[in-house]
Design goal:
The complex is a heterotrimer of chains A (323), B (323) and C (321). In chain A, 32% of the residues lie in helices and 24% in strands. Chain A has eleven helices and twelve strands. With 323 residues, chain A is α/β, with parallel strands linked by helices. In chain A, the strands form two sheets. Chain A has an eight-stranded mixed sheet, with helices on both faces. In chain C, helix 5 runs parallel beside helix 6. Chain C has 321 residues and is α/β, with parallel strands linked by helices. The chains are: A alpha/beta (323), B mainly alpha (323), C alpha/beta (321). Chains A and B meet through helix 2, helix 3, helix 4, helix 6 and helix 7 of A and helix 1, helix 8 and helix 9 of B.
């Protein structure tokens, strides 16, 4: 049984503004993560990758589909079960400075954990636990404890968040763009740390737009575009033998130190910046007196257009059919 | 997993990665990657606040003036040579014996003034407190929960706003034998909270989507605790300004009710003084010492508060500070 | 056409004293050269780039001069600089694409911008349309609001706006950082094309991303803690860097094709020094694996090989040998 099982997850948002319509952030996304495995979710802006991370962490609820942790559907979790879930699954986000409340000291994030999960642990034992967690992420306790977030660097803050997850001894970590705001010299340290944690048994959902990072540390790669999976498989296969044109376009566009951009098919034409066409779903026949808003999105009538099916071209290596 | 994750990860830690002692000077490295270089932040936030606060002329002036009035309200009734109820020769201009003369009935105007000052402060404070308490509570709840509850609270807020409070006061007042200052204070509180609620709701909405709130949720914290400990303190300066403004407007509102004769029946306030002066033709009879002092004092009280408020806004918001 | 910067120093005023963000920087650009200015956060590259065109209230000019096309730029005189901005020297600031006024259409923004430089939009409307088409956008963009465009589109519009008056020098500050990979390539190629078509004579591209510079720039200049560390043409920097910082930096970059299993990359331990009280001597000393006693005194930024400038005692000693 997989550690995390994402099954047919879709997320629709009602959009107002000049055009009334529905935006599909995720479209029937399905994949698994096992213990000790890093799965990289690669997508550009608008691909839905952050939304998927939030769905996995129960910060957002999907419109349809399910997420199972150790076989249990997380949408059914109420207060006590949710607390238990967070004991086993945690997240680290992109902007380390936003993740800390600026009016408190940085190590308050550890205190939050202690209040909820380790309130009976004696102070000295807790301090020792913090020290070993900081040690595991190569931070000197004297440098980072008792300081305000603005007194620390992005790399230190990011690593403290990972240490926080280690305090809980989580089994699943959702890392959403954790590298992008770090300096080049600290990026690698955090990456190497994640690999060490993976080898210690942690399952990691590594969300990024940077292909070189995904290539460096992950076992499997999922490529997301406009909310649906276009290619997935072992990292070496996906990068070595890209099947889908979108994957090939991404690989061709990555700037590299030692390889120049090949004059490809007009990069602007294939540029995936164009937002997904706004879909207009025929509104369900109005039921008088029903409240508007999110409730109706869940009705069966508002299924998003089905995602293109995935075909297996090599063992474990799937690619979506191209229109 | 049998062994804690921390120790397993530490086993893999790179032994060559020495921890360079970090200089204890707040450095530019504290800024997020890509931000404008070379703009350090002072470590002592509080010191910086005091530094700007003491140098802001509006704040200092406003607070000083207000302090004078407060001292007058506290000390005045104690040092007044005459008390409220004693009768003297009516219509006496200010003299050594009666510092502000006497009114139509022969009461000492100075005694009335300082007691009225006290009353006005009390009613203002009570009104502000009630409005703040209700407004903040409803604002936080609506801002945090959103959805249906928010819609309902919005509706309630709009109803209260639309209700003509003056008419309501007249109607309720007609049923009461006597009206005290507690009644007036509570009434003001119950009719002016919507403004606070809206402001608090808007700010809560914004802060709710910040990543440190997500992190608090991921730590298993209860929503009430998150709102009080994480969201509210980040709005502290804003809330402070709101309460100050509310205080000023409550005093003004109370004075206007009093002037119309809807004020407390059993105490003297600045507004009742002006009401009586008006009803007993002080203007026509040129007994300026009866209606000018309360008006001037009221204006001064509220103006000082508003000036201090503007100054405080400048202190809180660096972008408003001139050079 | 050329750009020459000599001994430029810029500091920030703070409550606790001056912070020397740019310390004694000298370099030169040829006509038609795209120079990449790279470094990590806090190294002063943004201050250098922005300071060349606009010294805002927080910045103080401590010394040095800039020569553009043989004439000195009056960088300390805000009013005098107005006639140079956008015409001779132009800037695409960081986060520019987020700073477009959302309440005005693109054409209206252009009109406002041009009017503030005493140019009528009508005179350049045709050229604007041509350039918009050149960067792969369609005409309709001019009638849209900024929030209706994607990040890549906004960035391209910003660059077109900044170069409309054909400046001699364009300074682009982190123009690719917030973009998707495909947009990055589009913008990178746009910069090169603008230089080829002489819409811009020379460019300084400021970024922390060395791989993008490897693709588009002719030369790369590395900055560390307010000072210049190394400058050479792109090929040399990427394949044969001399300064230890450059070498370590390049060694820490993950690339497509490199996997952890093949050999873990290493970062650079420690942190850059505080600029409010910088250490004496070479600023990289505390983190440098080759530090010697001599490094206690500051190495000068000198040409050790033709076209290759380095500020490092070890390199100088090896070159002398």
């Amino acid at each position: 049984m997989s550690l995390l099982s994402i099954d047919g997850v879709s997320k629709l948002y009602r959009t107002g503004g000049r055009q009334q319509g529905i935006t599909t952030a995720l479209r029937e996304v399905s994949f698994d993560i096992d213990q000790g495995e890093v799965v990289t979710l690669i997508g550009e802006s608008g691909s839905g990758k952050t939304t998927l991370g939030r769905v996995v962490l129960r910060l957002t609820t999907p419109t349809s589909g399910s997420v199972r942790f150790d076989g249990d559907d997380i949408s059914g979790f109420r207060r006590a079960d949710l607390r238990n879930y967070y004991r086993q699954a945690q997240g680290v986000f992109q902007d380390p400075f936003s993740s800390y409340n600026p009016i408190y000291k940085a190590d308050r994030v550890f205190d939050l954990i202690r209040d909820e999960y380790f309130s009976h642990m004696p102070r000295r034992e807790w301090d020792a636990k913090i020290e070993s967690a900081l040690d595991a992420v190569s931070l000197n306790p004297g440098d980072v404890l008792n300081r305000y977030p603005h007194q620390l660097s992005g790399g230190q803050l990011q690593r403290m968040l990972i240490a926080r997850a280690l305090l809980l001894e989580v089994r699943l970590l959702v890392a959403d763009e954790v590298i992008s705001m770090l300096d080049a010299s600290t990026r690698v340290d955090v990456l190497n740390l994640l690999v060490r944690l993976k080898r210690a048994g942690l399952g990691i959902l590594f969300i990024t737009h940077d292909l070189s990072l995904g290539n460096y540390l992950s076992d499997r790669t999922v490529i997301l575009r406009h909310g649906s999976i276009v290619e997935t498989g072992p990292t070496a296969s996906v990068f070595g033998n890209p099947l889908h044109s979108y994957t090939r376009m991404l690989l061709a566009a990555v700037p590299q130190l030692h390889k120049r951009w090949q004059p490809a098919t007009d990069i602007r034409a294939t540029e995936s910046h164009a937002p997904a066409p706004r879909e207009r779903l025929a509104p369900a026949p109005a039921a008088k007196g029903r409240p508007a808003a999110g409730t109706r999105l869940r009705s069966a009538r508002n299924r998003p257009p089905a995602a293109p099916p995935l075909a297996e071209h090599e063992p474990g290596h799937f690619a979506a059919e191209e229109a | 997993m049998s062994e804690p994750l921390i120790s397993k990860a530490a086993d893999f830690a790179n032994p060559e990665q020495t921890l360079t002692p970090v200089p204890d000077v707040v450095s530019v490295a504290g800024t997020p990657a890509g931000s404008v270089a070379g703009a350090p932040v002072t470590a002592d936030g509080r010191g910086e606040f005091l530094h700007y606060a003491l140098r802001n002329r509006k704040l200092v002036f406003g607070l000083a003036l207000e302090a004078l009035f407060v001292i007058a309200a506290v000390v005045g009734p104690l040092i007044s040579p005459h008390n409220l109820t004693a009768y003297f020769l009516p219509h006496q201009p200010p003299s050594a014996g009666h510092w502000l003369g006497t009114d139509y009935f022969g009461h000492d105007v100075f005694a009335q003034l300082v007691n009225g000052l006290r009353t006005s402060y009390l009613v203002g404070a009570l009104g502000a407190l009630c409005a703040s308490a209700i407004g903040m509570a409803l604002g936080f709840i609506a801002g945090w929960r959103g959805g249906l509850l928010d819609d309902v609270l919005q509706m309630v807020t709009n109803i209260i706003i639309m209700m003509p409070s003056l008419v309501l006061l007249i109607v309720i007042g007609a049923y009461l034998k006597t009206r005290g200052l507690v009644f007036e204070g509570v009434f003001i509180g119950l009719t002016t909270w919507p403004w606070v609620a809206r402001a608090v709701r808007a700010q809560t909405f914004t802060l709710r989507s910040r990543e440190f709130v997500d992190l608090a949720r991921l730590s298993g914290r209860r929503p009430a605790r998150i709102v009080l400990a994480d969201i509210a303190p980040n709005m502290a300066s804003y809330l402070f300004l709101v309460v100050i403004l509310l205080f000023g407007s409550s005093m003004l509102l109370a004075a206007s009710y009093d002037f119309l004769g809807l004020g407390p029946t059993n105490v003297t306030s600045l507004g009742t003084m002006m009401n009586q002066a008006n009803e007993w033709s002080a203007l026509l009879l040129h007994t300026w010492w009866w209606f000018v002092p309360p008006g001037v004092v009221l204006t001064g009280m509220v103006a000082a508060l508003l000036i201090a408020n503007v100054g405080l806004d400048e202190v809180f918001n660096p972008k408003l500070r001139g050079q | 056409m050329s750009v020459k910067v000599e001994n430029l120093s810029i500091a920030y005023r703070t409550l606790s004293g001056d912070v020397r963000a740019v310390d004694n920087v000298s370099f030169a650009l040829r006509d038609g050269e795209i120079m990449g200015l790279a470094g990590e956060s806090g190294c002063g590259k943004s201050t250098l780039g922005n300071g060349m065109i606009y010294l805002d209230g927080r910045m103080r000019h401590l010394g040095g001069r800039i020569e553009l096309d043989g004439a000195e730029l009056p960088i300390t005189d805000g009013k005098a600089m107005r006639s140079y901005r956008m015409r001779k020297i132009s800037l695409v600031p960081q986060y520019a694409m987020s700073a477009l006024n959302p309440t005005r259409k693109i054409s209206e923004l252009t009109t406002d911008l041009l009017r503030s430089h005493n140019v009528r939009y009508r005179d350049l409307a045709e050229e604007m349309r041509r350039r918009i088409a050149l960067v792969g956008l369609d005409d309709g963009v001019l009638d849209r609001y900024s929030f209706e465009l994607s990040g890549g589109m906004r960035q391209r519009v910003t660059i077109v706006l900044s170069t409309l008056l054909d400046p001699s020098l364009l300074i682009a500050d982190e123009v690719t950082s917030a973009l998707d990979v495909s947009s990055q390539r589009a913008v990178g190629e746009l910069l090169m094309e603008f230089r080829d078509r002489k819409f811009v004579r020379s460019l300084i591209v400021i970024t922390h991303d060395l791989s993008i510079l490897a693709e588009i720039s002719d030369s790369i200049m590395i900055m560390y803690a307010g000072r210049l560390a190394e400058k050479a043409d792109t090929d040399t920097i990427v394949n044969a860097p001399l300064h230890p910082y450059t070498q370590l930096l390049l060694a820490s970059l993950p690339e497509v094709g490199i996997r952890y299993e093949d050999g873990a990359l290493t970062g650079i331990p420690g942190r850059p020094p505080s600029l409010s009280s910088p250490p004496a001597g070479c600023r990289f000393r505390d983190r440098c694996p080759f530090a010697m006693d001599r490094c206690a005194s500051e190495p000068a930024f000198e040409e050790v090989r033709p076209g290759h400038y380095v500020a490092c005692w070890k390199v100088k000693e090896e070159a002398a040998a």
